[in-house]
Fold:
Amino acid sequence: MILPRRLRLAIFLLTRSFASMLGIVLVTVILGLALLGPVIVPYPDHVAGGIDLANKLQSPSAAHWFGTDEVGHDILTRVIIGARLSLLVGIGITLAAAAIGVPLGILAGLVGGPVREAIMRLTDLFLSVPGLVLAIALVAALGPGIVNAMIALILVWWPGYVRLADSKALSIRAEPYIEAARVAGAPTFRILWRHVLPNSLSPLIVKMSMDVGQAILAVASLGFLGLGAKPPTPEWGAMISIARGYLPEWWWYAVYPGAFIYAAVLGFNLLGDGLRDILDPRSHRG
Amino acid sequence: MTALLQATGLAKTYATRRTAFRAASSVAAVAGVDLLLPEGGALGLVGESGCGKSTLARLLLRLVPVSDGRISFEGRDITDLAESALRPLRRRMQLIHQNPSAALDPRLTVAASVAEPLRIHGLDLSRLPELLAEVGLPAEMLHRHPHELSGGQKQRVCIARALALEPRLLVLDEPTSALDVSVQAQVLELLAGLRARRGLSYLFISHNLAVVRQVCDRVAVMYLGRIVEEGASAEVLGAPLHPYTRALLASVPRLGAGGVVARGEPPNPAAPPPGCPFHPRCPMAEERCRAGTAPLLREVARGRRVACHLVGGHLVG
Amino acid sequence: MDRGLTLYLARRIGLAGLMLFGLICLTFVISNVAPSDPAALAAGPDAGRSQIEQARREYGLDKPLPEQFLRYVGDLAQGEFGRSIATGRSVGTDLLRYLPATLELCILAMLIGVLVGVPLGVLSAVLKDGPIDHVTRIFAVSGIAMPPFWFGLLLQLAFATGLGWLPTSGRLSVMTLPPDPITGLMLVDAVLRGQWDVFREGLSYIILPAIVLSFPCLASILRVNRGEMVETLRADYITAARAHGVTPWRMICVHALRNAMLPTLAIIGLRWGWMMSSTVLVETVFDWPGIGLYAVSSAIAGDFKPVMGVTLIVGLNFMIASLIVDLLYGVLDPRLREG
Amino acid sequence: MTALLEIEEYRLAFDSFDGSAAVLDGIDLTIEAGSTLGIVGESGCGKSVLARSLLGLNPSPPARVASGQIRFEGRDLLTLRPAAMRALRGRRIAMIFQDPASYLNPVLSIATQMEDAIRGQDAAAGGAVRARRAARAHAHSLLGSVGLPDPARLLASYPHQLSGGMRQRVLIAMALAGDPTLLVADEPTTALDVTVQAQVLALIAELVRDRGLTLMLISHDLGVIAAACARIVVMYAGTVVEDAPTRALLEHPLHPYAQGLIAAVPDLDRPEITPRGIPGSIPSLLSPPSGCRFHPRCDRATARCAAEKPLLRELLPGRRVACHHATP
Amino acid sequence: ERDGAKKVMVFSGNQAVPVLDPHMRYDWSTRMIQQSVYDGLLKYVGSPPQIVPWLAESYDTSPDGLTYTFHLAANAKFHDGSPVDAEAVRFSFERALKMNAGIAWMLKDFLKPEKIVAVDARTVRFTLEAAFSPFISYVPWWYIVNPALVKANEVDGDLGRKWMTENGAGSGPFKLRRFDGNALIHLDTAPGYWKGWPMGEEKRLGGVIYRIIRESAPRKAALQRREVDIITNITPDDIGQLERLPGVKIENHPGFTTFGIKFNTKEGPTADVNLRKAIAYAFDYDSLITIHNGAATLMTSPFPASMAGHIDVPNIPRKDLAKAREYLSRSAYPNGGIELEYVHVQGLEDPRRIGLALLDSLRALNISVNIVGQPWTTMVSRGSKPDTAPNMTSIYVTPVGTDPDTVAYQYHRESWGLYYGMSHYDNPEVWQMISTARAETDTARRMALYAEIQRRIVDDQPEIFGMVANRLWSMRDYVKGFAFSPVRFTGEVDLYPMWIEG
Ligand SMILES: Nc1ncnc2c1ncn2[C@@H]1O[C@H](COP(=O)(O)OP(=O)(O)OP(=O)(O)O)[C@@H](O)[C@H]1O
Ligand SMILES: Nc1ncnc2c1ncn2[C@@H]1O[C@H](COP(=O)(O)OP(=O)(O)OP(=O)(O)O)[C@@H](O)[C@H]1O
Ligand SMILES: [Mg+2]
Ligand SMILES: [Mg+2]
Structure:
């Protein structure tokens, strides 16, 4: 009886905010494109590498809504298929980073002492180099490619989760209900699993939602610098990077993939904001 | 009467880390406490905020590391026991927190919260409804979350959770201070009944003297990490010896208002005054109170201990 | 300065040193996992085998890795960042040349971020849930979601190519001589030397990249500031200030903002650190001759010494920024100042 | 004696997702100039909301005034425009709060906060705003008048450097900045230790006496109210259930809730009397019980109590009670 | 732009000039500035490229091809006024050989520093270790530096390397005014240049600015707005747009830079000549032309068309799927089903697109292509060994001289592992012919050998012989004196004869 109330509250909070609604719509659209992409695109062949040089650099038309690129690929097709890649990569990076960072962070916050000191110093080290520069160095070293870009970004992303999980664990550790569990004789692992983790979930979910957006942006950035996906993989950032050479005459080439990056990242960030409103007990006030 | 719980010279010092603008310092939250709780007894611990009541309670339950002194429980020294060795003992000593809202995991239902200790110790879960009934909660509450309960109900759940392991000792850290008087009376009734039925021992912390007098047969008064007076509650609260105890009693608001005895406010425990820690606020302070070490807790009459230079033999007998 | 603060600073600096060392190790490891042969790069495209071998010796690349590492650390200790493999130039000299341009860009962007972000945040919080608030919130999220490189291209398309109001890229036009350096920051130097036309021209070049660079930063500041202001305006002491009859203006701008500025300051510090790395994208788009562009072009060429150098500089900058933020926190928050 | 403040049929609701909570449900009470009135009631019964209503401090939304009047010196506060309300705050009606630690701005010095309050009062009075220096001098004297030693040093300090009692005194001094007529004290001692509580209560009593203030003191501690006020209003779930002189109420409460409340307080001096709790707990204000809001917990409740809301009637001279069954 | 009474021409390209030292390194942008600041003994001009006397008025060759004697112009002087004498020439060649970087590879196997003799102030004699016919074709790239200046700025015996990075010590038509290798280089015309000016003193420029604009869009915009007068690095797709601009003209010339896709002939599937042939016949050569909007010509031999000795090899593969399938069926992979790696230099647009075209073409053979962009260094170090070399690598090669040996030698055993030797071409008979040809002094016999070499190489198909892309510049119509010479690198122009009209 009570869960429905929470659900109703969640729906109320989400629908009340235009921003959250926009976020949900955008994310749903991107998810839909990612799922249905191969079925709905007009020129599936253009993703596998088929080229059509006779039709290169066409302006938007009925046959090619977003125009064509420098080897005659339909830009709409590639942008839609790009959603799939970006989404996979964004979610992959976020999940992997969280899978590394959260256990470490909770361990640090719960155990404290030298273990925490060591973990946090390592985290600080990674956090002190702003991610993009480190990622560039890494990708340049490992060689470009979507997998290497992911590895690099996971490497620069996990410390954020350590920080969050650690601070959450620290604050939860001080909660009387943790003490109550200790009084009841609960071993550390049980406390971690049953109390600390579930109670740190809300901010983690919020962060992960936003991070999917940020990871998409980061991959696109690497792609833009020529360090992302390899051709013929349709990747938004790489498309803009190439399209840049065709500005200003063929402006649509750069505009569409960018608009999709923007929409995707915006969607996930707004969704994160909306989730925060739902999950943050403070917002229940009014 | 055998001692269920005994502490000798128990001390806890907290060190604070240095930051950009603050030097490292240490706070003697508990500074040498001797204490004895007999089997089946109820000892009240009173004192102003920050005097170390909660810290003492957690020390006794081995929830914070001990800086100095010894603790024995059921006649066994538990000061240096490892957490794993302590775990079986935990069944017999339980804690009730001040704020029942914070003491319950917000994600667990009442049933899950109360069942948690049973699960940990691999006990039979079927006693759950019985437990709730014992603390006066209807069975329909089992599937509620804490935020759907009133303060008094939450505190009952906490008590049920503590009782689940059938403890002998219950440490209650201001169990009613977050509750309304009408609810407080309900909880006190419950606690009194439980003690009578189960023969529990209470270490009952409160700053409300009237409540302590209701619940406890003995009272210890704490000031700045030390016990300054201890004895049977009727005696200590009826005829206080230590100037601080007197000040406390005089401050309790009553119709028509009494005289103010204590000046000033509790000093910062990080920089306690020399000599008797109470001397800056004591209306009777003399030269000898201002210097030297803190007066020791002495037995001034049978079962009555006071730490004050000014309380001498003349009161004895 | 009291002893406590000195000790604290010493500890922090020691810690920063340790981190810097960690960073050096990290970059060194990264630069050596690359499968490329730096010596081939050093020797040039048409070089024969003997020349490659000579380059290898010359750059010490024939030495075992631990020795190379020790050498690198030793050089760094003397302020030497090593030589770029691709160009043979000293990385330290190059960094010195490009850093001011990046700093200038970052400083201007940060100014925009703070001067626009903070007031907008306050406005949005005060008019919470009103139309202005909604617009500002979407604007703020946009700042974080907008790919800087794309935004830069759009601005170029609009203001440089389309309207022709502003130049597309670079730092100054071809014929304009930059003022003789005093601070290295061109705009400041132009003012100091009284070269107002250079200043104006420099401004027209820097404004687009600065806007692009400032957008995410502005957005973060706005978000944090708004959030904190909303929280603060709910705080009990604000209720009290109202009850005491403090004027609304003063209540918002002093009583509330002072509190909200603390977390805002933290985000400013953080963003300053990130900004240095965003320059990688912005400088690429606007051909801004700073360390970001330097890093990217070197990375793409497989030339790691410059990348390592830039990484170290960016990391150092980040550490300094967080130290300054911590100290400022102490200044602004009396609770941290003493017991 | 004339009525300084008259509250009539005041209803206020808080709107939220779950519906509208009738937090104040027809409050009726009067404070005579120069008198001391205490308000008691369980947590959540609307005491603070009522106090904040007097200064227009309830955030709206979610707060919504449904009906009623609050007349202060003859003017209805509920219809005042914001500027007029600001002019009243602190100058005619001042307020002190429960937790002194959270009601002082942690990052501003005491001097700044006091100066702003004083200058704010000047601005509200419409006269010349005095210079900071003059404001500081005034702050200095105010601190002295609440019995704080060494005001100069105090002014230079920040809230965290003060003890709880000192903070509450500073807040009291700030409340006095506009030389108000009515002082609303919302649980001013709840966060303090008993010893300090006694000191602060003594200070308030002294100020009321010396300055001829009218006091409205809110607390859930009957002892505190009894020690400081001549008259007590008992509130339950947003309604006034009893209004009586202190001694009369304590000795002979008429409303079953007031009786229960008094019986629940343990008495230090009479430990032999076991306090008795009131069964049940306060109702949700989202769907308050019909009729008398207390009836679900009342052992004397009848069908009438559930159906009909009892009016607050003057049962004895100077004593009003809202109960169908109350008899003198 | 103007500088006082004289005009200044602004040239814009994408490539920085990190090091100016003519003995340290070269690439198109660097050499363009070097060519302006320094003079060589000889100079390449025109199309087809001719070698003309420059600092050397003439030279003699001994019949055995071992001794070359150069006679210097009398009036040549460095920018500081000191004469360009035989000692300066000797010093410069010695410096380049000692530094063993940049251009040194061209001569170092044949020329030892002690064999360079300043016979008198105006005569220098070089004695080679062995006969080396291409010698003269390399000499134009050996610039003469001012020994006094170099020595004055020498630190720790570095031969002035540090100083020369950003300073000029030449006798060329221009001298440095401002050097910021990553942004802008400002050259002033050297007053009273010893060689005089072809357009006359009247019309000559006041100077030249080389401005680096990395992206093509802003570069084009700058040309459109007359901020710059001439730009390079434009894509074939830009031509149409630019041509339509009033007052803008295009220079579009067949170049010298060959594009090929090198197979790894030693390891992996491509070690099989049948597979190589299959791929070569499957490849859609027309796409090379389409990608370049027609501004390219297909190669008909391993040698570029304007190189001496070039022949059209008759059976050079063109797209022919039937033949491709036939070769495939003879290979170890008659049904395809393999994936081949195609590596190109990261960031280069054309090879990436050609990769896409290759990918598209090979789908017909059921062969998939993994297109990988890698930094130059990585690519080169991978290519240095057969077991790490990619299956296919796209390589541009610009011969630095007009002598056929320059290209032929790429197929010699000695070139294995170098970037143009990534195919590790293994045919001892061809190697022998190459060695013979470079020592041969009789031109006719040499050319006959080279014709045979070209045929044999095509037979072995160590690479897909691609195309020679046209070189493109776009300039305002008032820019005059542009003289194309294919022997220069991609964007490089000879600034000396240029001027601005009106
Ligand atoms: N974890 C800790 N770290 C540092 N100091 C602490 C810590 N816990 C308690 N203290 C200090 O120890 C002293 C005693 O604290 P404690 O909580 O035991 O007091 P208390 O008597 O329970 O007060 P209250 O009535 O407010 O609950 C206080 O001065 C407090 O600041
Ligand atoms: N800003 C608000 N928004 C929504 N509901 C509120 C708000 N402020 C108070 N309430 C509700 O109004 C009711 C009365 O609150 P109030 O603070 O007046 O109680 P109180 O009698 O002062 O209690 P306490 O003794 O705990 O201070 C409560 O149910 C509370 O939840
Ligand atoms: Mg406590
Ligand atoms: Mg209240």
Q: What stands out?
A: The radius of gyration of chain A is 22 Å. The longest helix of chain A spans residues 75-111.
